[in-house]
Amino acid sequence: MKNHTTYRLDKIMAISFFSISLRNKESVEEVLWDITTNVIHQLGFVDCVIYRFDREKELLLQCAAYGQKNPSDTIIHNQISIPLGDGIVGSVAKNKKAELIQDTSKDPRYIVDDENRLSEICVPILIGDKLFGVIDSEHPEKHFFTEKHLYLLTIIAALCAQKIKELSSRSKNTFTPDNIYFKKLQHLMRFDKIYTNSDLSLSMAAAVLGISSGYLSSMVNAISKRSFIDYINGYRIADVKRNLHSKEYEHYTIVSVGLEAGFNSKSAFYNAFKKHTGITPSQFKENQAISAPHAIRDRSA
User: Fold this and answer.
1) 244, 204 contact by CB (below 8 A)
2) Which residue ranges form the domains of the chain, and what is each CATH number?
3) Rounded-to-integer distance, Cα 224 and Cα 230, Å
4) Which distant-in-sequence residues (6+ apart) come within 8 Å of 157 by Cβ?
5) Which residue, among 125, 128, 124, has the nearest Cα to 98 in the 3D structure?
6) Spatial CA neighbour of 131 closest among 81, 171, 94, 156
C-alpha cells in the first residue's frame, strides 16, 4: 500500500513538473532536448538519449541527448543510428514495449555507444499506436534502474508524445513557404551563407531573424520536413559537393572543405554527409572523378 501511495505521489509530481516544463515549448526539437535534460535532473540519471524513428529508412537516429553525449548546446557527440530491431533500443522500438535491463553484460543485444555501461532503461514514445521514437538511458552500475524509474519514464514518454502531437497539429495549419521569416532565412542561407559559421545555433539564427527559437524550429520542421540542424547541414553539404571539384579548393583536404562549409569537426562533417547522401565525402569525390571523363566525352560527341 505504501509503494502504491508513493508511486501515485511521484506520478502527480512528474506530470506536474514536465507539463509545466513543456508548456511553452514551440517545437518538437525543443521538447526532446527539454526531456533529456530534465530526465537526468529529476530522476538522477547520468545520461539520457532520445532516438527519433525514420519510418522510410527504418532507422532510429539520436536526435537529443544530455550527459557525455552532449558536450555543449544541441550537439550530439558521435551521433549514431540503429536499425529497427537491432540492440535493446531497436527491440523496444520494434515491439513498442519498454524494457529495463539490470545487467547489460548478459544481454547479447547490447550495443556500446560512447562507453560501455552495465544497466539500461528504454521506453518507446508512441503517438496513438505509431512509434515516434525511444527514450534511452544507461548507467555504469548494474541494477541501478528500478521499476519506479520505468513507471516514471513511461509517464514522461506519454507527456512527450502528447506535446509532439499538439505541436504537429498546430504546425500543419500555420507555416507555408511564403512565410516572411522563412524567406528571410533562405536569403541568409543562399546569399549571406550564414551556415558557414561553425558556431551557428538555433538561438543565434532566431536572434538574427528576430523570432523565438521555438518559432524558428517549428517553421523549419513544418516547411522543410527536417530539423533545424539537418536544414543547415543541407546547405553545408551542397557547398562541399560544389567545392570538392573546384579549382579554388583543389589544394584543400576533404576535411578542410567540410570545415570551410561550416562543420565544426571531422566526425560531424562525415556523419552529416553520409546521412544526407548515403556515402562518405571520399566516395563522393571518387565517384565524381570517375564520371568526369564520361561527361567530357558526352559534351564533345
Assistant:
1) no
2) 2-172 (3.30.450.40), 180-292 (1.10.10.60)
3) 10
4) 123, 124, 125, 126, 135
5) 124
6) 94
Which residues neighbour 190 within 8 Å (Cβ) at sequence distance 6 or greater? Answer: 235
Name the pLDDT band for 296 (thresholds 50, 70, 90): very low
The pLDDT value recorded for residue 291 is 65
For 22, 167, 234, 260, the CA distances from 253, given in Å and listed in that order, are 44, 42, 20, 11
DSSP reduced 3-state for 54:
strand
Query: CA–CA distance from 134 to each of 122, 148, 296 (Å)?
Result: 7, 18, 49
Structure-block grid coordinates of residue 160: 512527450
Return the residue matching grid coordinates 522510410: 56
Q: Which of the 8 DSSP states describes residue 114?
A: S
Q: What is the mean pLDDT of the chain?
A: 88
Tell which wins on pLDDT, 73 or 298.
Answer: 73
51 forms bridges with which residues in the sheet?
Answer: 62, 134
Query: For residue 240, which of 285, 174, 179, 200 has the smallest C-alpha distance?
Result: 285
First-last CA distance in the chain: 86
The total of other beta-carbon atoms located within 10 Å of residue 67's CB is: 19
Distance between CA atoms of 239 and 258, rounded to whole angstroms? 8
DSSP states of 160-201 as a string?
HHHHHHHHHHHHHTT--TT-HHHHHHHHHHHTS-GGG-TT--
Q: Any bridge partners for residue 100, and if so which?
A: 121
Comparing 16-30, 223-237, 260-274, which segment has the lowest mean pLDDT?
Answer: 16-30
For 5-46, the DSSP string reads: HHHHHHHHHHHHHHHHHHHT--SHHHHHHHHHHHHHHHH--S
